[in-house]
Amino acid sequence: MSSISFRCLMPLAAAALAAGCATVPGEPDPRDPFESVNRSVYKMNMAVDEHVFEPVATAYRDIVPPPVRSCVHNMFANMRDIWSAANSFLQARMPEGINTTGRVLMNSTLGVFGCFDRASEVGVARVQNDFGTTLGVWGFGQGPYLVLPFLGPSTVRDGVGMIADFQGNVIGYHDNVRLRNTLRGISLVDQRAQLIGAVDMVNKLALDPYSFVRDAYLQRREQRVRGFYADPDLPDYSLPDYDDPEAPDYDDPALPDYDDPEAPDYDDPAEAASSADSQASARSADEVPLPMLAR
Question: Rounded to two decimals, what is the model's pTM?
Answer without folding.
Answer: 0.67
